[in-house]
Amino acid sequence: KTYDDVTIDNTTGNAYTVWMKTASTMPSAVIFPFKYNNKPVTRLSQSGQTSGFDYRANLTNVYIPETIHFIGDYVFNKCTNLKELNIPSSVRQIIGTQTFGASGITKIIAPGCQTFGNNKNYEYGVCYDAKSLEYVILGSKEYPFKEIKSVANTVGYRQFYSCPKLKFVNLVTENGLRSDVIFPASEANNT
Predict the structure, then answer these.
(1) 84-117: string of b/e by CB count within 10 Å (b at 16+)?
(2) Distant-in-sequence, close-in-space partners of 141: CB < 8 Å, separation ≥ 6
(3) Reduced to 3 DSSP states, what percent helix, strand and coil does the chain have, rounded to the nearest 5?
(4) pLDDT tens-digit profile of 89-99?
(5) Taking Cα atoms as reference points, which of 106, 79, 108, 78 lies closest to residue 94?
């Protein structure tokens, strides 16, 4: 189904995925639906599919409902004026190529996120080239963080590549806060 260039697809039979169908004009604020046809909307973008929300320089505000569990490829890629994003605790997976790539995002706080990154054979991780990104906090006591996927068999490799302002990545795990560096320090500053 398509409504105002937004595609809502029943991919699982009992839930929906939402993404932009065309490259038409987008307002500066987007509110994602939490329900469609009495079924929850649970995913932003399909893994491996360009979302259509990418390249939206005018996008400044986004509301993600508590029904969303998954944020996939390119969802906010090159949304250069999107600085902050409230990621609800319902989001368990942020697995995508350049989900926040080259965006203006300054912080990522995802208290429910248990899996971050992709392990595809791509060079570009979730935050590739997010030059304004300063810090990332993943997981919470209620939803402990489990894994950062890797590219090239290195933990967290390239998920934060070319993020020169990145100061820290904190993971709240079953064993408490893990704030040690989980990727080569040179990776974040590599431009």
Answers:
(1) ebebeebbbbbbbbbbbbbbbbeebebbbbbbbb
(2) 172
(3) 5, 30, 70
(4) 999 988 777 88
(5) 108
Q: Which residues contact 46 (CB under 8 A, 6 or more apart)?
A: 9, 11, 17, 19, 72, 73
Record the pTM: 0.81
Are the beta carbons of 59 and 23 closer than 8 angstroms? no
Residues 6-19 pLDDT 10s: 455 555 566 666 65
With 60 as the cut, is the pLDDT of residue 56 above it? Answer: yes
Residues 163 and 169: their CA atoms lie apart, in Å, by 12
Task: List the one residue out of 30, 107, 34, 115 whose CA is nearest residue 75.
Answer: 30
Residue closest to 74 by CA, chosen among 23, 148, 110: 23
Q: In terms of Cα–Cα distance, which of 191, 186, 51 is closest to 131?
A: 191
- Looking at this protein, which amino acid is placed at residue 51? S
The pLDDT tens digits of the residues spanning 71-82 come to: 888 888 899 999
By three-state DSSP, how is residue 109 classified?
strand
Q: Cα torsion for 14, 17, 22, 24, to the nearest 10°?
A: 110
| Range ranked top by mean pLDDT from 30-39, 105-114, 182-191 | 105-114
Predicted pLDDT at 109: 93
Phi, psi torsion values for 140, nearest 5 degrees: -160, 175
Q: What span, in angstroms and rounded, lies between the C-alpha atoms of 98 and 91?
A: 17
